[in-house]
Amino acid sequence: MRYLRIAITFAYILVDIFFISAAFFPAYIHYYGTFPTDYRLHMLVYAFWMASTVLLFLTSQLYYTVRELTIWRETRRVIRALLATTLFAISLLFLLKIQTFSRSVFIINFVAALVSLVSWRVIKRFFVRYLIAKGFNNVNVLIIGAGRAGRRLAEVLARKRELGHKVIGFLDDHIAKDTEMKGTRVLGPVAEFENIARRHFIDQVFITIPSERNLVAGVSCLAKLNGISIQIVPDDYGLEVNNIRLHDAGGVPLLEYHSPSLNYSMIVTKRLMDIAIASAALVILSPVFLALAILIRLDSKGPIFYGSKRWGQKGRLFKCYKFRSMVSDADSLRSELRAAAQIHGPGFKMKDDPRITRAGKLLRKYSLDELPQLWNVLRGDMSLVGPRPLPEDEEVGQFKLKYLRRLSIKPGLTCLWQIRGRSDIPFERWMKLDEYYIRHWSPAMDVGILLKTVPAVFKGKGAY
Q1: pTM for this one?
Q2: Angle at 388 between CA 384 and CA 394, to 5 degrees
Q3: Domain boundaries, the chain
Q4: Are residues 282 and 374 in contact, defined by beta-carbon separation less than 8 angstroms?
Q5: Domain 139-235 - what CATH class?
């Protein structure tokens, strides 16, 4: 098996060298027309670049078909490694003052090599997944613990056949032998591990009850003696986490549970989208702004715009702007109407609010009163998409701790709540939608929410 892995790794390297060369030489000859007189120096730079690329690919585990690695994560590794070596080679040309070698060749080569190196890996991974799904090189798996974590693991392994894990059964001290758990049988107690492992030719064992330290130690010792790979499923303690990081502190292994926040590049991307779209919208919608301002002025006395303090990112207060849709003394009447609110919690919403003007009903139905918040987006107080800003209200101080995370990012002009029914959604569900958005944010999600906001607003559902 060891020699087979070495042979496969060597074959992968040869395929990469072929595709890198196939990308480099056509670009080189196309640019120069022929080999220049000092081509030996050029070939030396190219050889160094190719060798560094292969070496970085090797350290990035790109010459192994790791079954658990997704196609997207493998593609990201290829992009990072190839970009790093290409920039390094271009920097080397600059430092050594090799003026005769065009950097354009490297740029063209980078694009061509990236396409070919990613493409053949995607094809290879689909082929390997097909073989594994047909039973090639599958491993027999035994799961210690038939509790919630064990049953969930069995379901995942059964569903993801490309991982090549054949679940033979569970071992559990608290569930009777031969009990079937969603298609997987309990084979007996943990004490029978060695006997069952040999009888069923077990290759790998998963322990899903890590808190029982003596049991883990005993099974680990027996697994090692029998040449069985062992993996321990960490307890999630009921937490909602996206990632678990493994690192150490002075040699002490640690598992870090965390739900990652937006990194710097994601923040910059989101801000650039906000500026571009908000700027364009303010210009395009300026006639609409003028028409609504005239409508509000003709309908009732008071200012055209209404500004109120709202909770922003990290608890910072900012002035949020809207077109006025209520009578001018609406805030003073709020306490009298709170008992009739349809949304309970931080936020005040009620159907048939007597404070709303005739023009205000039209504005609120189609969320036109929110349009001035494009200015808040441009200023950086808000984002186009994000949790809706809550008012500076005494109830915010009583906010549940688990919901304070919605203040970790900028509030938005629209959100999942806006496209799922708005005020018809209960407060708890609203908060969960915000939590989901924060955990799973991506530029594609923002674009999707923005596109769905327009038809949702025109339907006028849940608007009051």
Answers
A1: 0.50
A2: 145
A3: 2-133, 139-235, 267-459
A4: yes
A5: alpha beta
